[in-house]
Amino acid sequence: MKLIYCILAATLIYGTGLAQEKTDSTGKKKKGAAISFGSNGLKVTSNDSVQKVDKLFDLEVGVVDVGVNTLQDKTIYTNAATQNFLNVPNDQKNSNLFSLQNAKSINVNVWPVLAKLRVFKTEHQKLYLYSGVGLQMYNYRFTKNISYLNNTTPEVFMDSLSFSKNKLGFTYLSVPLGFTMKTKLAPKAWLIYGAGITGGYRISSWTKQISGQRGKQKNHDSFNFNDFNSCITGEIGVEGYLRLYVSYQLTSLQKTALDQHPFCMGIRIGGA
Asked: Where are the beta strands (DSSP E) in the chain?
């Protein structure tokens, strides 16, 4: 998590630096410098009316997604492998075992740098291709007292304790690839929409449980989770006002036994 906080802090500092105001000797405020990086290299401009230029190639810095997680459960709970994986009473071997506190199951994606290439432009329409690198982070808060165990044979079991917090988390190092369309709605309003895919490698998976008997326990382990994920993504919004995103993981979280797929939706901060 320290790495995540550093990335977010750097993003905020960068954005603040672009928008900061300076005061001259007369006490009058004026805009500070704007920094951009494109096909012509690094450019610094310093005047009172900095206007964004639509370049052929550009970099988007500090795009952050914040949303909620759900799980689409496609597991066939009558399978022998699933029955053996779930060390719980038979009447609890169903999708309700993994029910979530949806308001506390959070998805955060951090895209420090996204490269954007404009491939089509008219007066009322623009098309961009983009790619980059970033982090996809999923947190799931369970309502049941389930625990993941990574022994010789991984399993999920029902713990004897009652947890005030029972969380499962993932972090993936991910590469997105997609397109963004812009359609002009008004002289200063553009509708933004697009779709893409991401491919990621799991760099961390962990559980966090808090109880009166054991206190706070955090366990980093691979459990039975896949090392790689693949997602389809989409976004829609109005430039400069509001952008929404959705993401659905095509690959299952688990290697065997369970067939669960994260679905996320929320607000996209930054980008153009």
From this structure: 21-23, 29-31, 34-38, 41-45, 57-73, 86-87, 106-121, 125-141, 146-149, 155-158, 165-186, 189-211, 215-220, 228-238, 242-249, 260-269
d(CA 102, CA 93) in angstroms, rounded, equals 21
Q: Which two tokens stand for residue 153?
A: 């044979």
pLDDT digits (tens, 9 = 90+) for 49-100: 445 677 889 998 999 999 999 999 999 999 999 999 999 999 999 999 999 9
DSSP label of 56: S
In angstroms, the Cα distances linking 30 to 25, 48, 210, 231, 244 are: 11, 6, 51, 44, 33
DSSP state of 104: G
Calculate the CA 167 to chain-centre distance.
Answer: 17
Q: Report strand pairing: 125-141 vs 155-158.
A: unpaired
Return all residues near 233 (Cβ < 8 A) that are at least 6 apart: 176, 178, 195, 196, 197, 198, 245, 246, 247, 248
- Return the CATH architecture of domain 55-269: Beta Barrel (2.40)
Identify the H or E element spanning 18: helix 2-19
69 to 146, 178, 221: CA distances (angstroms):
18, 22, 21
Q: Which of 208, 55, 61 is nearest to 126 (CA)?
A: 55
Please tell me the predicted confidence (pLDDT) of residue 51: 52
Residue where the block lists tokens 């625990």: 147
